[in-house]
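Reviewer 2 asked us to include a model.

Predict the structure of this chain.
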Amino acid sequence: MRISSPSRLMTVSRTDKETRLKDFIAESLTALAEGPGGNGSVTMMVRSVDSPTARALSAALAEVPLLPLDIRVIVADTRVEDATLPSLRDITSIEFRLLNDPRFGASHEQLVVGRTHVWIGDCMRRDPNKRDAFELYHKADPVVRKCAAVSFEKLWSRAKPLLPLKGAGLSPEIIAAGNNPDLPWSHRQ
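Predicted model (structure tokens):
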């Protein structure tokens, strides 16, 4: 069996990773908004909500006009390095599940936006903040999207639901604006 080469294979430094990923997500969400129906889904599997992927999704959601999106996220670790900073967990419209089984540590982080845009990154046992990371970007590739969706659904069924954070209920725009003494996460200082 012959395996096709990826759309775009890149190894980037951690400083570039979040910016490139945010731009990819924003472009994907814009294409989704301009397409038929103007709604869709986003699925993501990440190491933690501190992951550059999770931060990039938060930033992209703040930049793109609000869309009716079904967003589901699988996290492998609920620990947060800096609890005073806003995170993806502060957005109540996102459904989270925890997959803390160490057998899945070799799984790769993954993001699927809409029907065709897929990003696959470094494996979840590596800390993306401490090394350069592997990334694959697939644009307008329904075959890769189908494979990623099947993988995500199998892991989603094994993961356990996470309860929303107490006091969470913020829009992505508010989270992107930064820390404010009146916001719910400021009590964590």
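The longest helix spans residues 14-34. Strands lie at 8-12, 40-46, 69-75, 94-98, 108-113, 117-123, 133-138, 160-161. We have added this to the supplementary material.
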